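forwarding from the other thread:

> can someone predict this with zinc ion?

sure thing
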Amino acid sequence: MKLESDGIIVSMRPFGERDVVAHIFTEKFGVLSGMLRGAVVAKNKPMVGQMGAVAWGARLDSQLGVFHFEAQKNLGLVAMMDANKLKYLNAMFSLIETLLPEREAYPNLYNATLKTLADLNMDSYLQWELDLLRELGYALDFSHCSNCGAKDNLIYLSPRTGRAVCGDCGAPYVGKLFDLPIDLNTTLRFVESVCRGLDVSVPEYRIFLQSK
Ligand SMILES: [Zn+2]
């Protein structure tokens, strides 16, 4: 089996003295994992955040695959000189690695990831995380009150449905509802739900990312 696509390296871990095991988020096939042979000693070392042409092959379906990676540009470079941007990049990449099933395509999220990497800040990150949650079955909806349909006075969000609730309808449930507008602390609660469902821990990079 051989798969070819563009992709972004989202994680690399040393494997022996010369090789690394990498996760690459590809446009056509979602997250792929495999070996980058000789990555530790290569002249042009592959790096997390690099985007490029990916070829992935495995002899058997269950086997850890082997990558060939041709770097085109380093999308993570801008974050390497800015600790604030790096926080968001690390959170994005760790969520992609932890939450997305392997070999399942998420073309919309791939494009959203490229766009977000080009302009990393709290707002773009929050928007990206809403996109991620939508792909994982938590489509948060702030357009109207899920109870009465009102489009104004939307000050709450239901933790159960992820939908907005107006001030009147929410009044009896204050304390059980999240506040709007949404922030990174609110989306973290939904990320926690996803992680519970998958029986994985919330990535540390995401836990430490808090709204000011
Ligand atoms: Zn209402």
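The radius of gyration is 19 Å. thats all i got for now
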